[in-house]
Amino acid sequence: MRLNTIYMLLVVIIAVLISTETYAQQNCDSLRNEVPAFCKLLDDDARVEFPKDYAKIADCMEIDSVAQMLLGYELVKMKALHLQREKGRVFTYGDWMDMVVELKTGKEYRNAVQMMQLIHNRINRGDWEKLLKLMKDSMLPSHLEALELDKLEKMLFDPKNKGKKFIEVMEHIK
């Protein structure tokens, strides 16, 4: 009798899990053809809706802080406008999801992930050299100039910052 009850309970749990997974996949499939809310709004309101739209995508695929940083509002908006002008169609969540997948296979994403890991380490020459190399590979020369890397290096290796992490010093840079 107990074995029958346990068996029935397992069957019910498995059925619920399968139906929940199928339902979630159907939601993600229908989301692919839906137009994100931010595309339908004026700029100020769109900026407020943008993170909510990202959260909808995150329910269907893994979105990390690096992807959100690299595929920010301006870049996604630019892609949406490009599709509208050049291809004569609206931008959908599916296009956005494809952008995320494409981004995650690229060198820029891998470099950004490595940089994010390195800046959480304690300040040391070896990691600084790695950071410099990654920045030079990933950033435009004009952006590198704006960072004033010489001043940044002096600030990082100032004796008062000994024992601190890169991010602790860098977050005070204007």
Concise structural overview:
The protein is mainly alpha-helical and 174 residues long. The protein contains 10 helices and no strands.
Protein architecture, described:
- The protein is mostly helical.
- It is built from ten helices and no strands.
- Helix 6 (107-118) runs antiparallel to helix 7.
- The protein is flat.
- The N and C termini lie far apart (71 Å).
- Mean pLDDT is 85; it is low at 20-24.
Overall pLDDT = 85
Alpha-carbon Rg, integer: 23 Å
| Sheet with most strands | none
* SSE ordering: HHHHHHHHHH
- The overall strand count is 0
N/C terminus separation:
71 Å
Helix fraction bin: over 70%
Q: Which ranges are low-confidence, i.e. pLDDT below 50, for 5 or more consecutive residues?
A: 20-24
> What amount of the residues lies in strands?
under 5%
Kindly name the structural category.
mainly alpha
Quaternary structure state of the chains depicted: single chain
**Contiguous helical run count:** 10
- Coarse shape: flat
Observed structural traits:
174 residues; mainly alpha; flat
Topology:
Blueprint: H1 2-31, H2 43-58, H3 65-70, H4 73-87, H5 93-104, H6 107-118, H7 125-138, H8 141-147, H9 149-156, H10 166-170
